[in-house]
Amino acid sequence: MDTPAIVVDGVSKDFTVPHERRDTLKERALHPFRRSADERLEALKDVSFAVDQGEFFGVVGRNGSGKSTLLKCLAGIYPVDRGEIYVDGRMSTFIELGVGFNADMAARDNVIMNGIMLGLSPREARARFDRVIEFAELEQFVDLKLKNYSSGMHVRLAFSVMIQVDADVLLIDEVLAVGDAAFQQKCFDVFFAMRDEGKTVVLVTHDMAAVERFCHRALLLERGEIVTIGAPDQGVADRYLELNFAGTATEGSGSIERAGDGAARVVEVWMEDEHGARQGALVQGRPCSFKAAVRFERPVEDPSFAVAFVNAQRQNVFVATSATEFDRTGQFTAGETVTFSVSFENALAPGRYWLSTLIAWPGGGNAIVDRWENVASIVVTGARPGGGTVDLPHDLRLEREGSAVR
Length: 406
Description:
The chain is an alpha+beta fold. 22% of the residues lie in helices and 36% in strands.
């Protein structure tokens, strides 16, 4: 069995965070004996994992979960307080925008200097300069000082240097988000090539689509601790989205509208997952249910019940109504409470949706018992947004004459 490319064994990293800063000489002179209280922040807590040779490994988590701290420990920028880190092979890092660059030097000098810092000989660094600049598409700016570069130009240059050093292990933070769409696609093409070449890559990102697209496995961090490690499509992506959107259900909005004669009232609405648990965030592609508790104040016979899922553009993306399902719904007495529910496979695209309910007298028209618009909202999460208002199950095929491509 091959030796792992990276082994992280029981790593912990703490920081001391002062409650009060004293930066000036005057503050120190006026209060020479005042001691600033501080607290200990545990950025990483007993983190252990291994990355195999040739593995594309993702690190995901919410802001403040410890992702960037972990990457800096791997790169040797931060020393670990407890535990050990082992790396087999030459490492190249792309962690923070501008790290390792001298803003008062031109691109030519920075490329050569960074190449040497990453392990190339001076001759190799100079020989690869043209390839770096060509990939970064900065031929017109080679003699311009980096302090005059835009953030996107910095990204182009840093990424181009990183991929030219023939490293065995690459550490990449999510700073690629600064680049424009065309350059991001260029970087993604490089990622596919790295996978094919068997490079070991650790990628920190918030983009779960990129994790599912490139990574063999991923690690999910939360408050410095490992939540789970595994294939992105086997729980890691869903768990990450659940952590991000937990508690995001919102009751009401600034534009709630209520109408009707009050013979019945919707008193509560909620969404449930496939296990019957109430949720404010629903995973795309999973079974779910809408439910509403309806209390009748007066006798009502054969009312119709409806719910609409409305997107941010105020479009009714999905409407379910008893009027198309039943001829009669029954007779309800004053004081009775019933539950109106709609179960479906969640094909909604990722995003926030507002829920509007309607109870109407039989016959339609304007005979409204209770209309409650924007009573609550939910968030639909998904790692692969397709750009449409729904993501219907489908079979996409590409066929050549005489054979199917896929």
